[in-house]
């Protein structure tokens, strides 16, 4: 089974730092393969650039029919699939087909609607390793990297599809999930293990949460769980 080892950044003078993901590759030396199935051309190009920045060889498709062809030709390790592909089969239809023919492919679903409204939790026969990204969060490169890394690491606790952030909470999906774990008393080290990332990356999420919500005392080990729980109760 596929396993990601770590996420790191390479500083480049005068350029935006892009986190990359390194993997043990069961095929031997060479980059991982990613497939993007997305009908919107701008989103498709954005995702292609992101995956290439993470070190993937990338194939793209604008519908399920093209995606099926690339699936057969490229045998990807990861598929990023828009749920709504316009006319024809949906992204969920494509994923169910992929689960039968390529069950090893880690699958990240995309949508502009919430995870709970997307219908993922009610669909049977999806691939084993599944995650979700809201398209509004694609500008958060670190969060996208974390989702991909966790999805490619089936040894980790499965990403909870039902824990969708409430409207108006002012947190990204990734930040909301981390704050939930904090409110349950999970340590920084255990959050990093469960999310397939580093403690440094988790502390970075803490900082961004506190930038927006300084009332959440994430710097205090004795108060952060109760502080996070109190904040979340206001949106329950």
Residue runs with pLDDT of under 50 for 5 or more positions = 1-29, 155-162
Structural class: alpha/beta
CATH class of the largest domain: Alpha Beta
Estimate the mean pLDDT confidence. 77
Give the distance, in angstroms, between the N- and C-terminal Cα atoms: 38 Å
Count of runs of 4 or more consecutive helical residues = 8
CATH topology of the largest domain: Rossmann fold
Anisotropy-based shape = elongated
The strand count comes to: 7
What's the CATH superfamily of the largest domain, by name? Answer: Response regulator
Q: Report the portion of residues in β strands.
A: 15-25%
Number of structural units classed as domains:
2
Side by side, the strands of the main sheet go 4-3-5-6-7
Measured as a percent range, the helix fraction is 25-40%
What's the CATH architecture name of the largest domain? 3-Layer(aba) Sandwich
Q: Secondary-structure element order, as H and E?
A: EEEHEHEHEEHHHHH
How large, in whole angstroms, is the Cα Rg? 18 Å
Largest sheet: 5 strands, parallel
């Amino acid at each position: 089974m596929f396993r990601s080892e770590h996420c790191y950044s390479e500083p480049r003078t005068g350029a935006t730092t892009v986190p990359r993901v390194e993997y043990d590759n069961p095929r031997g030396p060479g980059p991982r393969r990613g497939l993007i199935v997305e009908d919107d051309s701008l989103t498709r190009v954005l995702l292609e650039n992101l995956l290439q920045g993470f070190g993937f060889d990338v194939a793209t498709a604008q519908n399920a029919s093209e995606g099926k062809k690339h699936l057969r030709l490229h045998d990807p390790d990861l598929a990023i699939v828009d749920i709504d592909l316009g006319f024809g089969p949906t992204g969920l239809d494509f994923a169910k087909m992929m689960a039968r023919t390529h069950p090893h492919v880690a699958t990240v679903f995309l949508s502009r609607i919430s995870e709970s409204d997307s219908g993922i939790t009610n669909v049977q026969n999806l691939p084993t390793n599944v995650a979700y990204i809201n398209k509004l969060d694609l500008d958060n490169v670190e969060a996208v990297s974390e989702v991909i890394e966790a999805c490619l690491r089936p040894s980790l606790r499965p990403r909870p599809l039902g824990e969708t952030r409430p409207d108006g909470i002012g947190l990204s999906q990734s930040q909301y999930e981390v704050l939930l774990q904090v409110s349950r008393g999970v340590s920084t080290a255990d959050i990093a293990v469960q999310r397939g990332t580093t403690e440094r990356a988790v502390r970075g999420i803490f900082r961004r949460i506190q930038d927006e919500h300084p009332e959440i005392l994430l710097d205090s080990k004795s108060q952060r769980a109760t502080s996070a729980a109190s904040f979340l109760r206001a949106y329950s």
